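Hi R.,

As promised, here are both runs. First protein below:
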Amino acid sequence: MIAITGSGEFLPSILDVDKRLIGYLDSAPKVLTFSTAAGNESDDRLSYWRNLAQDHFSTLGIDHKHIEAKNREDLNKSSVIDDMKNSNFVYFSGGSPTHLYDSINNTKFSEELKNLENRGIVAGCSAGAMVMGEKMIKGKGLNYLKNTIVIPHYGESFYSWISNTVKLLNRGKYKLLCLEKDTYFIKDKKEIRVLGKQQVHIIYKKEHHTFSDGDKINPSLLI
């Protein structure tokens, strides 16, 4: 299962939504969080993500481990691969989507991530959501969502330039999956649905489809 949101990772406003998301697991949650997208940022920033994640999942009463992985080399350590094999939920927080893609793509870690998608949940927010598309604003994505560019922070005024720029550059080749705060786009095998407090949008050429909590999305909209 893929579950991605536009913003709000580990904040109080998404707490009840994450509780519902975790409920989709078939067994007791074993959560790993990665701040790898921020791997080129300061130690203080990395500590911020670690502490936020630890507090969040502690509040939920969930078995959780934050992985200190700044880059491709860190992600592919044998200890991290072992942790991946024993988990059923991974979460990638924000930062640089390009750095996150470069750290994951075509590695042993990426193979384990694909295995985990088949048995659990691969979740991401902001940069952690953007890498799941076939393409990103700059460069390729991991292609978990074919024909798609993921746009996070949708509707947030500071980030409005992102969606406007992509609309101009895209020229109708890719579908734009636009994600608002505290709301997950969930792809579970052939079923697609929305979970959260705001909305999810699919934009393609002159079409604009909007979905809210509980809505199911016809997969043909992203083909």
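And here is the second one, sequence first, then its structure tokens:
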Amino acid sequence: MAIRLEKGQRINLKKDNGSKIDKFCVGCNWGAIVTPGGFLGMGKKTVEVDLDLSCAMFDVAGNFCDHVYSPLYKPEFLAKFGMPKGKLDSNTGALHHSGDDRSGDTGGDDGLDNEVITVDLSRVGNEVDQIFFFLNNCGQEDFSQIPYAAIRMYEGTPTKVGSVCAQYDVVANAEFRGKAALIMGKLYKKDGEWKFNAIGDAFADANLCLTIKRITETYVK
């Protein structure tokens, strides 16, 4: 049974039989915003939501050492913050991004994640000690307006969900008003084994560069 994670909860990456989970997906699912619209407000208006699922990797000394985020970010914009170009694969190919989804679920939850990062821990470079997963909203909305957003870890592929290991849910709530970035959680090494920590902290960061800076300065240990 999948664990419904609470903020700050930590889990071991193991199956019920005690074997390690080395290959899994980290997926994010979110819904488009539906509001009254049309003639006299009797219809419905769907506002597409463009969230970006990204990850940043750090070595044991806390140095930024690799990343997976959208190649659609303009290199000249990233360069202003000293950040490298976006890419869909980590240096060793251990993490792979499924690509951008710029709308969210416009017809209700279809059961699949909008953006997925596949992970193979056996291929992660030895220098990598922490891997942070985070979301940035590229539109004008904030997380208080988005009907639902969830990050989950599961065995399977981006198009076929197998056994769900854990899930962290974010629902439309006033506490997320003005927040456009969400640090979802991190994978980290402890005593030679990978574990996961659900963070769930939201901020008003205007772009992913500011979020990575925040992670570097506040969350890397």
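A quick note on the second one: The chain has a mean pLDDT of 90. Let me know what you think.

Best,
J.
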